[in-house]
Amino acid sequence: MAWCGQTTGVHVQLALKSYSRRIFYSGRLACVGRNPRLASHASSVRASPGLLQIRHIAASRHNAKDVRRHGLLSPNIIGQPFVVANSTVCIPWLMMILAPNWQITQKAFKSEWSMIVPGLVFAFFFVAAAFIETSSPGELLQKVKFLFLEAIADPEKMREFLSSGPGYAAQDWIHLIAWDLIGGRWIYLDGLEKKVPTWHSLLVTFGGRPLGLLIHFATRNLGQKQQH
Questions:
Q1: Smallest Cα–Cα separation from 168: which of 38, 57, 66?
Q2: CB-neighbour burial class of residue 131 (10 A; exposed 0-12, middle 13-18, buried 19+)
Q3: Interatomic CA distance for residues 11 and 17, integer angstroms
Q4: What is the pLDDT of residues 190-216, one digit of tens each?
Q5: What is the SS3 assignment for the chain?
Q6: From CA 192, how far away is CA 198, in angstroms rounded?
Q7: Is 196 helix (H, G, I), strand (E, B) or coil?
Q8: What is the reported pTM?
Q9: Residue 135, phi then psi, degrees to nearest 5
Q10: 123, 115 Cβ separation under 8 angstroms
Q11: Contact 121, 84 (CB under 8 A)
Q12: Which residue range forms the structural domain that includes residue 178?
């Protein structure tokens, strides 16, 4: 995953650690029946029919000889697009931060395509994840019900749902960077309109998301007071 500068290096480490934990946790679910310590840990988590089914799916995938045969599509379909998306996301950020007054930068981000493209990329991963992580419409419906009826009200269940397969992990990450870019675009255009600097706000938005928006509002209000 290619990011830019020291801040992006932190993103790489966090992403790799998060993905490693997801892989480890999936493997741990498969070993619960054989390890007393893991069985004790699993029994401490409040179970539900939807949660038990998610665990069963993760365990069966871990034990399968070929996990690619479980879903309707192979996980490999998102591998290369995931790398490309993470490698190219730095380009628009660098344009907004380092060359805000460049004609090409302004033309690119004033176009609605600067929002449409991230939306289309996320839509691809969202749909692909559904086909990768489910082997039938019934299983897909069961997961949707579990997500909106149970996991949405329990952080532990939500974490387990998102870590139950690579498709969910990929679409969740793309969801974050797509919305970050759309939010950064708004800050950039608002800065051009109000004639206030945005490079520092965009840097924070790239790494801290909503914090960058708060900094931009503070910068804008301070600039307006100085003008009066």
A1: 57
A2: middle
A3: 10
A4: 999 999 999 999 999 998 878 999 999
A5: CCCCHHHHHHHHHHHHHHHHHHHHHHHHHHCCCCCHHHHHHHHCCCCCHHHHHHHHHHHHHHHCCCHHHCCCCCHHHHHHHHHHHHHHCHHHHHHHHHCCCCHHHHHHHHCCHHHHHHHHHHHHHHHHHHHHHCCCHHHHHHHHHHHHHCHHHCHHHHHHHHCCCHHHHHHHHHHHHHHHHHHHHHHHHHHHHHCCCCHHHHHHHHHHCHHHHHHHHHHHHHHHHHHC
A6: 8
A7: coil
A8: 0.63
A9: -105, -5
A10: no
A11: no
A12: 5-227
Tokens 């990768």 found at: 132
CA dist 164 and 169 (Å) reads: 8
The tally of domains found in the chain comes to 1
- What six digits make up the tokens of 86? 């993470």
Instruction: Pick the closest to residue 169 from 184, 179, 158 (CA basis).
Output: 158
- Cβ burial of 76 (10 Å; 0-12, 13-18, 19+) is exposed
pLDDT given for residue 101 in this prediction: 94
Q: Which two tokens stand for residue 73?
A: 């599509």
CA angle 123, 127, 128 (to 5 degrees): 115
Taking only the tens place, the pLDDT of each residue in 81-129 is 888 888 899 999 999 999 999 999 999 999 999 999 999 999 998 888 8
- Residues 6 or more apart from 60 whose CB is under 8 A from it? 70
